[in-house]
Amino acid sequence: MPDSPTAAPLPGASRSAQIHHILENEILAGTLPPGARLDEMELAERFDVSRTPVREALRHLASAGLIQIRTRQPALVVALSAARLIEMFQVMAELEGLCARLAARRINAAQLAQLSQYQEQLVALAGTEQVEAFYEINRRFHELIYEASQNHFLAEQTRTLRNRIGVYRKMVTQKPTRRADTLTEHAAVLRALATGDEEGAGNAMRGHVNLLGEKLLDFIALFPKAG
């Protein structure tokens, strides 16, 4: 299973690649939140390097759409508007729905058992204050469905988009009612996967991920000034 967004950089990577990896993970995990400043000099001091590898790392982050490089000013972590995020969630829902649809045909018994274990862990965590743990197990639940789709390109594209909006998904997860809804929605996905119901699995997953009804209102409330 792929590493979590907070995984350490691989040994042997260039210094620039290591800095890029660390900063990317901090952005995706929300440690560097939308709007955070990334000053070349401060980063060079932090990583004890010259500004050259820092500048290269920032260029890679900018090309991935994670930061905005500005002339004679520190780079900024990109802050997405509510409208843009809603569009991204819509695409995410279709990608995850397709993953679930394929997984209904291709999932094996071991994967199905593991999904059930993750669901049990989520049930135990839902009523607690362990939001980070809930979010991490939820991420693993979805990752396993990507894997069970047995379509590596689809899994890669889905994971990339999920990482881009991960911080915002975590914000919604802070709400206890959203965690409770997640359990019900996961149960519907699990039932469809267990019975090989391709259409049911796809529909259940799309409904789970997409921002509809009260979920949309809750999400928009997080961005009162967004267009």
Automatic annotation (TrEMBL):
This is GntR family transcriptional regulator. Keywords: DNA-binding, Transcription, Transcription regulation. Residues 13-80 form the HTH gntR-type domain. InterPro entries: GntR_C, TF_FadR/GntR_C, Tscrpt_reg_HTH_GntR, WH-like_DNA-bd_sf, WH_DNA-bd_sf. Pfam families: FCD, GntR. The keyword DNA-binding applies. GO terms for molecular function: DNA binding; DNA-binding transcription factor activity. CDD domains: WHTH_GntR. It comes from the Bacteria.
